[in-house]
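A student in our group prepared the protein record below, which I am reviewing. This is what I was given:
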Amino acid sequence: MTGIVIRVFGRYYTVKQDDVEYISVLRGRIKRTPEMRKFSNPVAVGDVVNFSINRDGLGVIESLVERKNFFSRKDKFKGKEDLIAANLDQVIAVQSFAVPRLNLRFVDRILVRGMSAGIPVVLCMNKLDIADKGDEAYISSYYRDSGLAIIFVSALTGEGIEKFRSMISGARSLLIGSSGVGKSSLLNEVFSGLSVKTAEVSESTGKGRHTTTNVQMEQINSSTELIDTPGVREFGIMHIEPHMLGTYFQDFNEASKKCRFNPCSHDHEPDCEVRRLVDLEEIHPDRYVSYLNILYSLRENIDNMY
């Protein structure tokens, strides 16, 4: 049979086929293929798989149907690639005003990974009801000319929710963000029938408590699917050469054509047009610092390989 993976929990996978769900495991040979050895987990939510049912009623995933794309991050413990989801239409990075603290450097990493995989990325800023004066303007300025779509919403007051609902309609979307930003509250506000668990942000740490424990897909209707993830605080990037990083910063593209060197890392080279525009604040200085942080982490990845 052929089905779609809708949940991953440890070494078990829930595969859905014709509205029936099967708890399944992987056939051992899948893990041993050279292509799959680079992943810490070779099958992800959103994968279409061929599977069989053994005598105990347990599903056995025999093979994967070729993916159109996948979204992953660096597994900091195993040094491999951690698959998060597959066959996506868009990735929605969820952040919040005030609590937990806004982390646009995290969003920049999501944007780079999405662009490298050919997956559109949207920034959803939640908790608009507690935003300070100037917060919206800062974020808009930070991402000017970056190509990143931004929506401002409040799961509490309902502001912007219709726009959010329209954005996800008819698509398979991955929601990713740290605990406490309000992913579950957003889902409950948009689709009240889901009743996704929510939790408050810890007063002692200022960080959210995990309410989603596994990556799982919610089928909203015949054409709309949402993949929710456990809170993610760190996001490592793999498989991007440092000198190519600037190509994923769309706000650098025009300036980079005027740099003396090609490629230019926009870090130390003389007559770098990107750095000149940063000094003039035509490129947001904080966005440039975020770029440098990613650049140095990519260089560190290469150094650790040798």
Notes: The first strand starts at residue 2 and ends at 9.
